[in-house]
Amino acid sequence: xxxxxxxxxxxxxxxxxxxxxxxxxxxxxxxxxxxxxxxxxxxxxxxxxxxxxxxxxxxxxxxxxxxxxxxxxxxxxxxxxxxxxxxxxxxxxxxxxxxxxxxxxxxxxxxxxxxxxxxxxxxxxxxxxxxxxxxxxxxxxxxxxxxxxxxxxxxxxxxxxxxxxxxxxxxxxxxxxxxxxxxxxxxxxxxxxxxxxxxxxxxxxxxxxxxxxxxxxxxxxxxxxxxxxxxxxxxxxxxxxxxxxxxxxxxxxxxxxxxxxxxxxxxxxxxxxxxxxxxxxxxxxxxxxxxxxxxxxxxxxxxxxxxxxxxxxxxxxxxxxxxxxxxxxxxxxxxxxxxxxxxxxxxxxxxxxxxxxxxxxxxxxxxxxxxxxxxxxxxxxxxxxxxxxxxxxxxxxxxxxxxxxxxxxxxxxxxxxxxxxxxxxxxxxxxxxxxxxxxxxxxxxxxxxxxxxxxxxxxxxxxxxxxxxxxxxxxxxxxxxxxxxxxxxxxxxxxxxxxxxxxxxxxxxxxxxxxxxxxxxxxxxxxxxxxxxx
Length: 534
Fold this sequence. Notes:
The strands form eight sheets. Strands 20-19-18-17-16-15-28-29 form an eight-stranded mixed sheet, with helices on one face. The chain has a seven-stranded mixed sheet with strand order 21-22-23-24-25-26-27. A five-stranded mixed sheet has the order 4-5-1-12-11. The radius of gyration is 26 Å and the shape is globular. By secondary structure, it is of the alpha+beta class. Helices cover 14% and strands 34% of the residues. The longest helix is centred in the middle third of the chain and has 15 residues. Helix 3 runs parallel beside helix 5 and helix 5 runs parallel beside helix 6.
């Protein structure tokens, strides 16, 4: 880290709570019922309670940092980044700019920031107990929603879980029906408040008849596309049976439907909910089943998921005016080159992409073109053919992706011999060479002021450096090079840090390199030193 100016960072919460200045009892801070202790005691300035926050941040699982050049407090938790510039009335939560009632400021070398903004940013709640003069902070007040991408091979099946509410989008192929039903049982699903059939292809509705026979469904959303197949007939019969029992069936058309979710599992209503809403996005392209896929948007606080069935470029384009930024994208048509157009990707701007595809499938899904587009946009990619079941958990402020597998590097195309990995690895189909301490890869230069590291491959073969580590020696900071990173023969890769620097890869928005001198070391996956730059 840059150390031109040494500042002891004691972050203080400025509470928008006014307490009489004549009060004599010391102010206390409680997080989830525990009274915290601080090196710098809480104080009152001009009627406003100021509370030290480093311990609070840590108790809420937030990492606290400091950008010395821009004089900005930085908090990071999961995929959330909070930025509070000193003496500015504007802060950032992720990409959102928020105006503050009280700007962050420094008083007696202590940094002060507004409590309400920080608490709400990480999903916590702040109140003031006047009787005990206690700032009460309760963490994780938002909904705990889980989205399960079930591994059904070449197909889709997605379970949305919110306490006693359960929704299922698609149900895999015929041979996956037992997998889906068992998965629901293992996750204590008692009934389905919502079932969505995105379209009529067997790899999406093959298991639907078994699911609808095993579970009651309050609502069924049908794409209203007829298919001449036994699979479709079985699904339709099961759906009609539910309808005859008084269930509601919606047809997919050009109108949107918002469904408010109730955590107690009671019947959903057709309104938007502050905590969690499922929106069925109208889509009417009548000449193609894939492009007529019912599209579902799950809105949980500040986190949004987009499920696109087998939507292809034509269908994506038709919906552009209805879409905006999302955090998690279920990639359309199993990662086929016919879907995930660049125009669509630029519109939804996902941070995470999940691809449901079968190992060694005959279609070659996902296609390299789609993976490359996602990787060029720095989207984290996960695939069921590699990781098995994938679960994304969110409280509406942050989210976490979980799988049962450890990270390892394999070819990106599904193969029967692929080792399991959490993220989808390299899209390069050419041979890459094994690396060792004598690799042709070297750190060519480190621009300490500009925060740019150049790594060059001096060899004649492309080299996969996925899982390698770049270390700032003085700062003792490590950058894990992401999966899918390949340096072409003779090419140079740049890794940038800091606010202004740009490169092929971005380490962090913080400033990493010490201007007074900071060696950098590059290690391969086995932990062998590959190159050192003094």
